[in-house]
Amino acid sequence: MSDELPAGVERRQFDGEERLATRGEPVYGEPTNEGWRAWNPNRSKLGAMLELGMETGLAGGDDEMVLYLGAASGTTVSHVADVAGPTYAVEFAPRPARDLLEAADSRPRLFPLLADARKPERYAHVVECDVDAIVQDVATRGQARVALENARFLADDGRLVLAVKARSEDVTREPGDVFADVRDELSEGYEVLEYRRLDDYHADHLGIVARPR
Ligand code: SAM
């Protein structure tokens, strides 16, 4: 397992068990201990990628700018905003976005955006260009296309950290075939550095780390 965790993400004890954790207000009923909150890899694809030792390239720190696509009610993006600098969280469904706003209450660096990640021109005036990382977990058809459309925001040396859900692309196909097609499509704009199945935590999901070409 890699020790390359972003600054601010630590392994801490919760009820006698060592778990990934960040410092911040709890968001989804996760255990807390002296200001630390456990990061549940079963609820978070990024948490699973970190648990599995993937080199996400996320560094943490106030200077790190992140664009998070598919923020839902803030489970994962709240951990990201606990350790990173400005974190733009895009979510198009109003209901989870309401909870996301609550998660942002105690996180001044978390900026929820009610927007469609397939239409980045709608938030281009808000998101500063040259973000250090795009973290994407939209679980919708066309996941590679969403990543390609948003590449415009990524710094030349930035990273795409992508979770792909096979069943969102096509429930009838073998996940491995779907993942191969997604990697192939991504290569239009990205160089894939690492990929790994997340099945230990999320069935039929692939984690991908890539950089812009
Ligand atoms: N990333 C979240 C977490 O770990 O806390 C879970 C995300 S959930 C699997 C996928 C989310 O992506 C849903 O909330 C869905 O509404 C959102 N989504 C799907 N397509 C989207 C799009 N085109 N633009 C913005 N959000 C989208």
Automatic annotation (TrEMBL):
Name the Enzyme Commission number(s) assigned to this protein: 2.1.1.-
> Quick one: which residues bind S-adenosyl-L-methionine?
75-76, 91-92, 116-117, 137-140
One function term, GO molecular function aspect:
rRNA methyltransferase activity
Annotated signal peptide = none
- Segments of this protein annotated with the region Disordered: 1-33
Keyword rRNA-binding attributed: no
Q: Name one Pfam family in it.
A: Fibrillarin
What are the BP-aspect GO terms? box C/D sno(s)RNA 3'-end processing; tRNA processing
Which InterPro entries does the UniProt entry name for this protein?
A: Fibrillarin, Fibrillarin_CS, SAM-dependent_MTases_sf
Basic and acidic residues bias (residue ranges): 9-22
Keywords carried by this UniProt record: Methyltransferase, RNA-binding, rRNA processing, Transferase, tRNA processing
Function statement: Involved in pre-rRNA and tRNA processing. Utilizes the methyl donor S-adenosyl-L-methionine to catalyze the site-specific 2'-hydroxyl methylation of ribose moieties in rRNA and tRNA. Site specificity is provided by a guide RNA that base pairs with the substrate. Methylation occurs at a characteristic distance from the sequence involved in base pairing with the guide RNA.
Q: Which PANTHER family match?
A: FIBRILLARIN (PTHR10335:SF17), RRNA 2-O-METHYLTRANSFERASE FIBRILLARIN (PTHR10335)
Indicate the quaternary assembly. Interacts with nop5. Component of box C/D small ribonucleoprotein (sRNP) particles that contain rpl7ae, FlpA and nop5, plus a guide RNA.
The entry assigns this protein to a family as follows: Belongs to the methyltransferase superfamily. Fibrillarin family.
Give the protein's recorded name.
Fibrillarin-like rRNA/tRNA 2'-O-methyltransferase
